From TrEMBL:
The keyword Membrane applies. The lineage of its organism: Bacteria, Bacillati, Actinomycetota, Actinomycetes, Kitasatosporales. Spermidine binds at residues 307, 329. This is Polyamine aminopropyltransferase. It holds the Pfam family Spermine_synth.
Length: 547
């Protein structure tokens, strides 16, 4: 049994090494400290993950954003631990203050990032103004505060009952790592799907404030002066009030921010299991725009030129069975169905909600010509890579890859040598594969890497491009140019299993009349694309992505 100790003089903190004055037994006190460590660790990891997730959505390139957030945060944690050594004589008060600040900063970080994204329109460099700079600032601040927790918690747990340093570290880190596991699993499987990023961050901040405040004000209140106790109470109540107010107003904030990003013509906005889907326009003569995770994927101003260029060069030849990878909006299927001798069209789309919108949203279904009402069209929901692995060989005369740009990290595997090898296996001996490969003029290295990768998979290629007639289609894989920017052209690659497929648009009875393309223009644009060729590029693979 631990001997009682003399109380510290009123208004002072017991000297380091002295026993804390606890309202509970030491064993219970240790348990409560470790429980607080568990909760704070879970909250800290949620802050990290929500910064990575939101930055990937707002800025793009999730690998880069994750690297920036985690590296800056880990560095800052080390600095925070060093700085916190000076606070060890005031461990209880210092820990309480740090948790209140961490709850406020971490809880409001997602709101602040989204606000800058929505209202400033600043897409400067990594160290410039805008979301990237704010991302680094939040990562640094949160890392400093998380790092400062460990020395103070070590001091508090030792003040309850002295033990060897190795044992104390083992107990503390065990609670910390288990809490991090729970936070890491709760974010993608519970918080994000049920609450969304903004509300999840606010609730996490509130939990953090309650845990830190309850530990200090409940267990270690004897170590605090009367003034310190009141200051901590006021600080925590203020933080909880700010977070609660923000949670109540978060829906209004999100609507206002969405209007700032997309304009006031937002007609559909929903968060699916995979992405945010927003549709603007499509009524009263306004062109329809479809955004997926903030990136413009379809523009009614110029979508026909894109989809005619993707589909019809590949349809020159046998095309009774067609596979569309992506293209859940139904626009590529609309162009395929213009060929009356098509017998079957299989669409593999990762997000079932996009297909439902394409079926049920009147302006979008009108734009796609009600393609999903055609009995020849069959929809499969799932990952295109996984689906191709199970597809029977030599099944399709035409495969159309209508996927996001290769520079988007989530789609990199769908532009890999392995993926194109699976697509090649699914083609008939004289089949053709058409790939959307991103803009040529602004990102030639990416475009020609796709070409190199297709050739490495055993396909013969015919690269081509078409120029856009206005600035309204599919911005690239990052948001560096702003939400309304668009490339000057769209690059495509036509590939075949045997000889190099010719670039032509078909002729004769039954060939649809195209609105935007001619064979002469297609050949001229292919010559122009060839002039941008970048040599010496390697193929992109699953283990060595090059985009």
């Amino acid at each position: 049994m631990i001997e009682p100790h003399a109380p510290a003089p009123p208004g002072t903190t017991p000297p380091r090494g002295g026993r804390a004055r606890l309202p509970v037994r030491p064993a219970t006190g240790r348990f409560l400290v470790l429980a607080c460590v568990f909760v704070c660790a879970a909250c800290g990891l949620v802050y990290e993950l929500q910064l990575v997730a939101l930055a990937s959505y707002l800025i793009g390139d999730s690998v880069t954003q994750a690297s920036v957030v985690l590296s800056v945060m880990v560095f800052a944690m080390g600095i925070g631990s060093l700085v916190a050594k000076r606070l060890r004589p005031l461990a209880a008060a210092g820990f309480g203050a740090i948790e209140a600040v961490l709850a406020l900063v971490g809880g409001c970080s997602a709101l602040a990032l989204y606000a800058v994204f929505a209202w400033t329109g600043d897409w400067g460099g990594m160290w410039g103004n805008g979301p990237r700079c704010l991302l680094v600032a939040f990562s640094l601040t949160i890392g400093l505060l998380i790092g400062a927790e460990v020395p103070l918690l070590m001091e508090l747990i030792q003040r309850i009952r002295r033990q060897d340093a190795g044992g104390a570290v083992a107990d503390l880190f065990a609670a910390d790592y288990v809490g991090a596991l729970v936070g890491g699993l709760a974010f993608p499987f519970l918080l994000l799907p049920l609450l969304g990023q903004l509300t999840a961050a606010l609730i996490t901040g509130a939990v953090n404030a309650v845990a830190g405040g309850a530990l200090v004000l409940g267990l270690f209140r004897g170590d605090l002066t009367r003034r310190a106790r009141w200051l901590l109470v006021i600080a925590n109540v203020t933080v909880l009030g700010v977070l609660a107010s923000a949670a109540v107003l978060v829906d209004d904030f999100e609507r206002a921010a969405r209007h700032a990003v997309y304009g006031r013509d937002v007609r559909v906005a929903l968060q699916t299991e995979l992405q945010e889907v927003v549709i603007t326009g499509g009524t009263h003569g306004r062109p329809l725009d479809l955004f997926l995770d903030g990136r413009l994927r379809v523009s009614g101003r110029d979508e026909r030129r894109y989809h005619e260029a993707l589909v019809h060069p590949a349809m020159s030849g046998e095309h009774s069975r067609v596979l569309i990878l992506g293209g859940g909006d139904g626009l590529a299927a609309r162009e395929v169905l213009r060929h009356p001798d098509v017998h079957r069209v299989d669409v593999v789309e990762a997000d079932a909600a996009v297909v439902r919108l394409a079926r049920r949203d009147p302006p979008l279904s009108e734009l796609n010509g009600h393609a999903y009402d055609d009995p020849r069209v069959h929809v499969m929901t799932g990952d295109a890579f996984r689906w191709l692995r199970a597809a029977p060989p030599a099944t399709y005369d035409v495969v159309l890859s209508d996927l996001p740009d290769p520079g988007i990290t989530a789609s990199t595997k769908l532009y890999s040598q392995e993926f194109y090898g699976l697509a090649r296996r699914a083609l008939t001996p004289h089949g053709r594969l058409a790939v959307h490969a991103g803009p040529v003029s602004s990102r030639p290295r990416v475009f020609w890497t796709v070409d190199t990768t297709l050739r490495a998979a055993g396909l013969r290629t015919a690269p081509y491009r078409v120029t856009g007639r206005d600035s309204g289609f599919a911005p690239g894989p990052d948001r560096s140019a702003g939400p309304t920017a668009a490339p000057h052209d769209w690059g495509f690659i036509l590939a075949g299993r045997g000889q190099r497929p010719p670039l032509r648009l078909g002729a004769g009875e039954g060939t649809p009349r195209l609105v935007t393309l001619t064979r002469e223009g297609l050949v001229a644009d292919a010559r122009a694309a060839e002039g941008t060729r970048v040599g010496g590029l390697g193929a992109s693979t699953l283990v060595h992505p090059r985009y």
